[in-house]
Write a structure and sequence with these properties.
InterPro entries: Bac_photo_RC_H_C, PRC-brl_dom, PRC_barrel-like_sf. Pfam families: PRC. There is one protein chain. The chain is an alpha+beta fold and about 120 residues long. It is about 10% helix and about 25% strand. It has a single domain, classed as Photosynthetic Reaction Center, Chain H, domain 2 (Alpha-Beta Complex), CATH 3.90.50.10. The N and C termini lie far apart (about 65 Å). The chain is built from two helices and six strands.
Length: about 120
């Protein structure tokens, strides 16, 4: 998704699935803890429906609406963690798996262990 978009501008926008079916309205936007980049949107699905989390990458903001490249049924079945709370890394991982999105594991810690002993040839 375009990273120059203010996440506050997403609140209240209509959201549509990949087929153009209306999903609902963006209720909340969740930022990545490390980067501050908008990562997830909670979409209010129906008047009495629950909020469903959708990934903002690879979603697009087109002509003032959020286009989510997944089917409504998949979005509707996304894990429900409730809105207004912080998403834990484990919850985010569940959402990534639900949507079939591959995420790169964090890079391994670089332990520059050097061998301080030297062996001499006899």
């Amino acid at each position: 998704m375009q990273t120059d978009i203010d996440p506050r501008n997403l609140i209240g926008r209509k959201a549509f699935d990949r087929k153009g079916t209306k999903l609902g309205t963006v209720d909340e936007v969740y930022l990545d803890d490390a980067t501050g980049i908008p990562e997830w949107a909670a979409i209010r699905m129906g008047l009495f429906g629950r909020d469903a989390f959708v990934p903002l990458e690879p979603s697009e903001l087109i002509e003032g609406t959020l286009r989510v490249p997944f089917d409504r049924s998949l979005i509707k079945d996304a894990p429900d963690f409730g809105v207004g709370r912080h998403l834990s890394p484990e919850q985010e991982l569940q959402l990534y798996h639900h949507y079939g999105l591959d995420i790169a594991p964090p890079p391994p810690l670089n332990h520059n262990s050097t061998n301080t002993t030297t062996q001499e040839d006899p």
